[in-house]
């Protein structure tokens, strides 16, 4: 009987497979998933920004020379996360080429959906900072914010 149960698990019907996956498959060539967590939602957001920049360069090579503030707002928590990441990405792509070594979320306003953060880092420059993958855009695809025991976030980015 145990054998039959195993077989059932591995020989899923198309219907069962469809039920199991509640998100689109990643197209590894063009997108990747950021998964970050922390003891607080603020920390999960901080880690998510650093995960994004981790695709772009080795953030360990970045020195905290300058401080940059980033604020964002949304109409709910998901759009807040989206705009937060987008604003940080903009700091890199708009002339400044700013790469943070560390990002600290100063506060998240859950009623007004506003966030304020500060990052310490420097301007991206080769060969000091290795060139990684270019992050083209943040997406809402399969975005999740889970606030159970340990807050975690999932975001798919276009690369």
Automatic annotation (TrEMBL):
SUPFAM superfamilies referenced in this protein's UniProt entry, alphabetically: MTH1598-like
UniProt keyword tRNA processing, yes or no: yes
Biological process, per Gene Ontology: tRNA splicing, via endonucleolytic cleavage and ligation
Single GO cellular component term: tRNA-splicing ligase complex
UniProt entry tagged with the keyword Metal-binding: yes
Keywords: Calcium, Metal-binding, tRNA processing
Subunit structure: Component of the tRNA-splicing ligase complex.
Family statement: Belongs to the archease family.
Protein name: Protein archease
Organism: Eudyptes sclateri
Lineage: Eukaryota, Metazoa, Chordata, Craniata, Vertebrata
